[in-house]
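COURSE: Structural Biology Practicum
ASSIGNMENT: Worksheet 4, Part C
STUDENT ID: 0417
INSTRUCTIONS: Below are two proteins. For each, the amino acid sequence is given first, followed by its structure token string. Answer the questions at the end about the second protein only.

PROTEIN I
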Amino acid sequence: MSEQLLSVGIDIGTSTTQLVISRLVLENRANPFSVPRVAIAEREVLYRSDIHFTPLKSETVIDADGVRRIVEEEYRKSGFDKRQIGTGAVIITGETARKENAREVLGALSAFAGDFVVATAGPDLESILAARGAGADAYAREHHTDVLNFDIGGGTSNLALYSHGELVRTGCLDVGGRLIKLERETGLVTYVSPVLRRTGVCPPPAAGERAHPEALAPVVEFLTQALEQAAGLRPGRDKLDALLTEGTRWEPPDRPPVCSFSGGVADCIYTPQGDWRAYGDIGVLLGRAIRESPRFRGAQLRAGTETIRATVVGAGSHSTELSGSTIFYRNAVFPLKNLPILKLTEAEERGSAQALEQAIGAKLRWFADEGGLSQLALGLRGEENPSYSRVRELAQGLARGLEPLRRAGFASVVVVERDMAKVLGQTMAPLLEGPVLCLDGVGVDNGDYIDIGAPVANGAVLPVIIKTLVFNK
């Protein structure tokens, strides 16, 4: 028996705001004698909104009423009522996530669906969402190769490197199409990002000056060369370091990867515009420079399955299942909702206790915002028939790695795919204060969210909802 579910994605980005409504068909793929496992059998985009410039009251304040009016109007045009929507995601991305009233905007929009994933996506999480929306992870897995996805928007470029389907690392550069804004008719510069003045390497034109492609060429070339260095296609890292977003790091890949582009500027790469002032910024010039770059042209390029809509097509969907029956929980308060997944790579999982601690600590920052760390769930594959000494080593590394979350007042939540949660949880518990939850029989990935309900079947299992982000294929 199948079930249909309507899902909506709303992305409020540095440059644009957009909405997508999809229909998901859910099916139970287990046999009648097994624990139910509901998965997405089909997915279809029913409505793609117009792409709107994100309304701002100032350079630091989002026009919340303006965003709400956009969403209300797009719902009206789509023919769907918000009461029909079962799930979805409101994501504030790029520089917009740093605006003073970002959380206020999220609260205003959360009423537009039932059970929403609502999050201000920092640069690391945005990199993951965009890369998966562009299909970079699937391409890397299916072709057994490395893929570096550049999601180039208005203010930032989010980078995600996948190797054979595994997320290796993320990064963010202050490279975008709206670092310089201008009047479409006259070419007069109306805004220059402080980022460009900060670098001091290629002075941009001043506001009020009349811009032309030749005068903007040094700035555009500098931005393009930073992207080339990020991909390991150009030696050195001077331009890369000059444009790294504050608080982020990036190490170019050891070997040239397949390069994939998404975001608004990707449309200017794959679908060239004749009028360089078409969008009132330098996005067309930047896309042209990337397209004509000898270094990118010499690399293996891949057109993403989505470009400007890569993030918004990642609307949340439900995949409901039950945990394994070997679970451990202490002082956990159920239900736990909308926990983002932090999943270690297979190589990181095989590490020593110290290596595990370091890997978890490095990746916790993916989910930190201006308010600090937030509740999340650590995802593991687990091991087949581990020895007690190995279980203890895992427990020590996990406990020490999750200690910053405990100090911030959050539960220690571990989701394991293989059947080992009970012994792992029992071994972790004496090493950690506060709530501890360890469950197995559930496969998760970076970019997913998880809801965990109260125990059922006399406490033997936990109902679990995986909000697997939906992407076109």
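PROTEIN II
(use this one for the questions)
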Amino acid sequence: MKTRRPGRPPTRVDEIVQRLADAIERGLLKPGERLASVRRAAVDHGVSKNTMAEAYDRLVASGHLEARRGAGYFASPAPRPARARVPPHLAEAIDTVSLLREQLEARHEVRPGDGRPPPSWMEGSELAAQFASGKWRPGGSLEHGYGSSWGFLPLRERIALSMVERGISCSPEQILLTFGANHAFDIVIRHLTELGDTVLVDDPGYYPLFGKLRLARVRAVGVRRLPDGPDPDDLEAKLAEFRPKAFFTQSLAHNPTGGTLSPAVAHRVVLAAERHGTTIVECDPFADILPAASPRLAALDGLQRVISVGTFSKTLSASLRVGYVAAAPSVVEALNDLKMLTVVSTSSFAEQFIAHLINGGHYLRHLRRLRSRIDTATATAVANMAAAGWHVSMPPGGGFYLWVPLPEGVDEADLCHRASAQGIFLAPGSIFRPGRSSGRHPAMMRVNVAYASDSRLLSFLRQSVDASRSGALALRS
């Protein structure tokens, strides 16, 4: 906002007007928020009442303030400054994470499209009490410096032990702690790829990864995902055609399909990657609630060509932002260098808290309850959606997701728009496609089992099916 004529120095009125206008435009003063009275504001700013009254009058004239007779002055919605032009690759990456933006801002009341467990699954639990308590602190004083760039050693030791229990040969020196799985993907992409490279990804697959690859200007080519893992024939063909630097995949409780890798497919994937010299990046976000003997690429490969990415976000708390990378020693050392260059280190406080939960047995008891909740919610969701006319198979994976085909005649985009108008947040299948092209794929949506039995969602789904059937009958007649 321009507050004075050019060619003269700013007055005190100019300075106050500029300061308050900036606060409103930046959202620091919310629309409808009451400002101090002229008398009080004059004292706060160290000016006369006449000077303050003039500043308020100019802000009313510019539309930043609203004067209400007998009540005072209130902040008004003000136009935000125009954004600088965004480069095309950045705009495309940002558009990819529109679904993530809704998960963070939480504007919808009914949230079957959310990718995380609901906060209510934490409330009232033993973990909630641990969060609230100040007694979790480990022995000795806490360090207030950066801490090791590798992360809190006792937590790395526990993670390495868990990986050994899953059949993955691993030492603490091969574990690097990160700010969650997404931060792990960031540094792995920086390490493995350069501008213009090609990588393979699951199709459908993890949509925030697609945005990160676009941001790095790396081409993502989809590998068809089947219920028992990546299609080995499609993978082999695309490895030969594109010679990719890496293949990013989620083996167990797959997001978004809920499928799980079979041992036969796992062997073919590892052998194909070895033949073509391609690194596999395997995400394992549900590792702590799945059987240790589940087939994992990292177990077959021994962390030679496979980089394993894990997180506590899906099984503990997304707010803690703690994840990890496990890889061959030379790879994890290079990733640590990138971590130091980008974020220096991760939160020792959060890492020590998680180590406390694990060592005290609190995390294990929480996981038992979480598994039970997921099993119950999944069975209930499948039955309730079938009763509403939406038929979906029981996923074998044990995670949060149902991959739901839309009934004939129901349009994916139209369904999501109508749901949003009713305060229901859906996750359309097209967002999980690396090319964002739904025309050649069946219409789908990802549903989080924790929210799938909400009566408002089920009523909406039932009405959508009824409307599509009525339309089909009308066309036939």
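ANSWER KEY EXCERPT:
Q1: The longest strand covers residues 219-226.
Q2: Residues 2-7, 473-477 have pLDDT under 50 and may be disordered.
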